Amino acid sequence: MLGWALMFLLVALLAGLFGFGGIASASVGIAQILFFIFLLGFLVSLVVHLLRGRAPPI
After folding, report:
1. Cα separation of 58 and 50, whole Å?
2. In 10 A of CB 38, how many CB atoms?
3. How far apart, in whole angstroms, are the C-alpha atoms of residue 3 and residue 32?
4. CA angle centred on 29, ends 21 and 42, rounded to 5°
């Protein structure tokens, strides 16, 4: 998912460089949404990991 966000950010930067404002703004919007979804997933997995702790030895 982070790879998709970085790809859309790269597309936005290239489109902005070549003057395609509409494509650049759309790509930036998609990259931001994907980044925040990735960040939310990371935080949820971090909290779950901290709450579970270590598994008891067998």
Report:
1. 21
2. 15
3. 12
4. 150
